[in-house]
Every structure is written in C-alpha cells, then in structure tokens.
Design the sequence.
C-alpha cells in the first residue's frame, strides 16, 4: 500500500475529532491527498452499532459489542481504508482498534481475546492518543446528548487501558488539556515524522 495510515484515539471530550479534522486540513494545505474516516463506520454494521450499542438503556453483552466492532472494522478496511491507502492517500481514522481494546476491555473482555478477533486488521503507521482525565472530557460534553459510554468510573477504566497501551509503545500520547493549536502542533510533529520516514 502506498499510503500512510494514521489513527486518532481518546475518550469522548478529548478533542480527537476536532484534531483529526484539523490534521486533515493542515495536511491538505501541504499538498497531501487525505481521506478522513471514523469508527463505527458509515457502513451497514456501523449502523447496527449506532442503533443497538449507542444511546441504549441496556448495553449488549460486552463480547457481542467487541464482535460487532471487529466485524465493522473488517468491513471498513475492505471498503474504505485499504482502497484509500492503495490510492496513496493519507488515511486519518477517528477511532480504530485501540478503542475496542479500551472500551470493551474496560467492561471485562480479555484484551488478548479482543486482539485475536481483530487479528486480520492492519496496523496504523502511527496511532496518536489524545489524553484528558474523564472529568475534563465530561465537562466539555456538558449540554450535549449523553451517550451510553459517558460514565466517569467507566471512563477512568478506559483511560487506564489507553495509558497502559502508551506505556507499551503502541500509541503516542499527546496532552489534550492544551489549547487546540498546541495539541494540533504536537500531533502534526508526530505525523510528519512518520510521513518523512515513509517518503
């Protein structure tokens, strides 16, 4: 594949979507062809997740959740991500594999099992984790519709898994408490390093 694959991770309220879109804009200004996408995807399995996992009073069994996200990811890769990479695009994905590890892992699903059901998915060239404490993320979301995953104790567990993945070297941490411009500057620096290595 000729392109470069970038994933952006973080809890809700971390600013990851804002940064992902600003990253797209910045790279396009420098002449890169950028394809922005997100998970759950806009495909049929992503629609099932939005209807039956998000904004529901009782969440599905966490193993079912993990399987749905894995199925959506495979469909997403086949229909969107890999074709864009083959065209030589820089692909920016707002949430990817590590969201499954963190969010379903925080519900008690063994992380090794989550990795096994995602064994066929490709690895991003770089994954950036935008870190904020759950209290900060939730305060930024005040006044918006509350979704299933917005529970402070749960988000603390999610964040703990993310931070452990950073410690293992699987993601690069950027402090999301900085201004948007400062966060974008840090993310751009890491992305440009990968782009230069990839030629």
Sequence:
């Amino acid at each position: 594949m000729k392109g470069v694959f970038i994933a952006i991770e973080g809890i809700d309220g971390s600013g990851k979507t804002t940064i992902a879109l600003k990253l797209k804009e910045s790279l396009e200004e420098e002449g890169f062809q950028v394809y922005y996408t997100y998970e759950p995807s806009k495909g049929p399995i992503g629609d099932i997740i939005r209807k039956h996992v998000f904004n529901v009073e009782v969440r599905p069994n966490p193993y079912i959740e993990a399987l749905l996200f894995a199925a959506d990811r495979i469909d997403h890769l086949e229909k969107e991500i890999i074709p864009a990479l083959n065209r030589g695009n820089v692909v920016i994905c707002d949430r990817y594999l590590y969201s499954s590890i963190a969010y379903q892992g925080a519900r008690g699903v063994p992380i090794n099992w989550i990795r096994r059901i995602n064994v066929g998915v490709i690895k991003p060239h770089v994954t950036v984790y935008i870190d904020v404490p759950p209290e900060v993320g939730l305060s930024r979301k005040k006044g918006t519709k509350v979704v299933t995953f917005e529970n402070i104790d749960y988000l603390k567990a999610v964040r703990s898994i993310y931070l452990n993945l950073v410690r293992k070297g699987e993601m690069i941490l950027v402090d999301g408490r900085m201004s948007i411009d400062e966060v974008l500057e840090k993310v751009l620096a890491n992305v440009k390093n990968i782009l230069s290595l990839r030629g």
